[in-house]
Automatic annotation (TrEMBL):
Source taxon at top rank: Bacteria
One cellular component (GO) term of this entry: cytosol
Keyword Ubl conjugation attached: no
GO molecular function: acetate-CoA ligase activity
Protein's recorded name: AMP-binding enzyme
Lineage: Bacteria, Bacillati, Bacillota, Bacilli, Bacillales
Domain AMP-dependent synthetase/ligase: 52-219
UniProt KW Acetylation keyword: yes
Protein's organism: Brevibacillus centrosporus
PANTHER family reported for this sequence: ACETYL-COENZYME A SYNTHETASE, ACETYL-COENZYME A SYNTHETASE 1
Annotated keywords: Acetylation
Amino acid sequence: MATEQIMVLDERANLKNYEEALQTMDWRNVEQQFTWSETGKVNIVYEAIDRHVVEGRGERVALHYTDGSREESYTFKEMMQLSSSFANGLRSLGVQKGDRVFLFMPRSPELYIALIGILRLGAIAGPLFEAFMEEAVKDRLEDSGAKVVVTTSALVSRIRSRELPQLQHVILADAVEKTEANQILYRELMAASDAYTIEWVDREDGMILNYTSGSTGKP
């Protein structure tokens, strides 16, 4: 005879009664939880990272990463500082609000720091599937007008920089040396100041540029 184990409700849970929440949910109330409802200032990075520092939760873990060879934890304060360094590094390269910066790399702390840094600057992030080969990568970087791409030493050979005149910089997340003039090492970029920076945007401004697979036509 099967038995059903009923878990004891954790009093710290945000959602204690799903059915009740479903009946009473109102998106207008949800919006009030975001600071922009009071300040009128919009940037998802502030909501996801910075506000937790401002509200006294800076030492709590924001990101825990493990992949078998690495196990690292980052607090909200550390993510704010690291992503500010990345954003300031991008700014030093001439990246501005609305510019396209693509990510062609596996999941790692560097990926998340880069993503948050891109959005912090008000630039538009574009994820690229790791399995894409040269032509698929070229199509998306060319169509988007990407100025910068962040990648790894294992994937950089699939980026045809010479065929992409608008692509100004290739940031190598894990390399220790550069092989092309337009390449920048991640550690060099992260030497930029971690002074707090954020670009406020409008609600209708772009944030993520995500291409379709292209299986039924041009993505």
